[in-house]
Amino acid sequence: MFSGTKFVVDAFRYGEIEGISSYFLTHFHSDHYGGLTRSSTFPIYCNRITGNLVKSKLRVAEQYVHILPMNTEVNVEGVRVILLDANHCPGAAMLLFFLPDGQTVLHTGDFRADPSMETYPELLGCRVQTLYLDTTYCSPEYTFPRQQEVINFTASTAFELVTLNPRTLLVCGSYSVGKEKVFLALAEVLGSKVGLSRDKYNTMCCLESQQIKERITTDWKAAQVHVLPMMQLSFKNLKSHLARFSAQYDRLVAFKPTGWTFSEQVQSVEDIEPQISGNISIYGIPYSEHSSFLELKRFVQWLKPLKIIPTVNVGSWSSRKAMERCFSDWLSETRAKL
């Protein structure tokens, strides 16, 4: 809970908390909305896309979902709040709070730091004292490439493979929301539709994106790009999936986009090799919607907060200490340059 407020962020798993009047949701991923159900009756503040998903997928009553605009200062219970694009999944927002005691707090939720954030007028115009930071990859080994580089590699690889064998079915792994940039790039380079389950199709419609709406279909046979849950990208499951479309395809290439696939042996995307079993290939591609270590460092050194509170990997004392050392080193470097 923030000083002088009755606010919490992404804290639904504890149920209704005594003394809390407003619950903010940064984005629609289950580790952030866990505990939020159709029977929830407390006020939830989020942006339109996240609100659409909360109402559609969780069936939370509309009267409890308060939609806040992006990039616009609003007043919630006497506290000024601004939502900023977090460059994570669709609807993901960073929350900038101006507290009654004069403190300014930025909560990143889950985010992928990008130099474009250094041009956000809302951040340029204020001094952030406390930063709640997404520390998913706050360790030096996580130095994966920029998103666009990975998207370009994935699209060009897919194009080459389909050119060599037009009877190749492409599969992209996804979460409930996320990885859209990857499968849209695959669809665009092939001029194909994207095949989705009915449930996934309904989820995508909540994103209010015309670009996505024009690409997606529930008719699997009308699409050369299929989207499946990340957990289903195993050789056994993909073999079964390909068998359903044997009249059209005799080979399947899957792309598994996640930062966890990265290793220090891979110096560039060109070094990525697929795992192959028979006519099935699986590419683990280092596409992440969280910040790499160096992106975190740059963001922190630009923002120069007085205090940093990590929000991920905080379960062990050693992990917290290692992150605190990083933060201290980053800010010391910045001060030394002044």
UniProtKB/TrEMBL annotation:
Main localisation: nucleus
Domain named DNA repair metallo-beta-lactamase: residues: 211-315
Keyword Nucleus annotated: yes
Compartment(s) of residence: Nucleus
Gene3D superfamilies from the UniProt entry: 3.40.50.12650, Ribonuclease Z/Hydroxyacylglutathione hydrolase-like
InterPro entries tied to this protein: DRMBL, RibonucZ/Hydroxyglut_hydro
Keywords linked to the UniProt accession: DNA damage, DNA repair, Nucleus
Nucleus listed as a keyword: yes
Family: Belongs to the DNA repair metallo-beta-lactamase (DRMBL) family.
Protein name (database record): DNA cross-link repair 1A protein
Lineage, highest ranks first: Eukaryota, Metazoa, Chordata, Craniata, Vertebrata
